[in-house]
Amino acid sequence: MIELFSSVNQVSSLLFWGILLITIAIYFGVMESNKKEKAFQKVFKAINVVLLIWGILLLIGAAKGHQSFWLPLKSNTAMEHTTTASQQTPLFTEIYNMGDLKKKQTEAIALQKPLLIYFYSSYCSLCNKLNEITYKEAKIIKSLSENYVAVKINVADKSDKKMLEMKKHFNILGTPAFVFFDAEGEKIDDNVLYGYQGVEEFYDTLDLMAE
């Protein structure tokens, strides 16, 4: 439900998260002092302090127009400058219907490369984290660019019938989600991979699926 708020825009999302984290911290007594606190209470207090600080950082980031939940004080321009030159070409080709997908499947088979289908949403915080961290790593860029035909599908618009057709075809239940086809056009594994993957984990996944 929280991610629905960020579909409006990322700035309002940071603002919402900042207010939420600060409210939670205050509600659970971050400002209260008790010298007789037990060990577990001190741990709980420390967690609330972290939430309070993170909430404040998010508010500052939102006020400056920044977009990253994980790096709220880093400007959008600075983040763009960290992108390597090889990332100027999009890692994923956006597709919009089954016709686009079939063309990419044909292309992958012709090139003898596996096909990666990435289902994402513009209001998915984990998808944004992938964009900000995992997809900016040089070895991920190299692996996707050299070894894969990679496409992505935005599932945010619930009224898009062509998108819904692709989502239903692969039985996608959430985002981020990954579907792999081998170089012969056969689906690898019947399961869809869900969730955030850090640099090393995603690199290992790409390496494994490309074998």
From TrEMBL:
Keywords for this entry? Membrane, Transmembrane, Transmembrane helix
Highest taxon, organism lineage: Bacteria
Q: Does the keyword Membrane apply?
A: yes
GO biological process terms on file: cell redox homeostasis
Which SUPFAM superfamilies does the annotation name?
Answer: Thioredoxin-like
Q: Where are the transmembrane segments?
A: 14-31, 43-63
One GO MF term on file is:
protein-disulfide reductase activity
One Pfam match, by short name? Thioredoxin_2
- Domain Thioredoxin per the UniProt entry, residue ranges: 83-211
For whether the record's keyword set contains Translocase, the answer is no
Protein name, UniProt field: Cytochrome C biogenesis protein
Q: What organism does this protein naturally occur in?
A: uncultured Sulfurovum sp
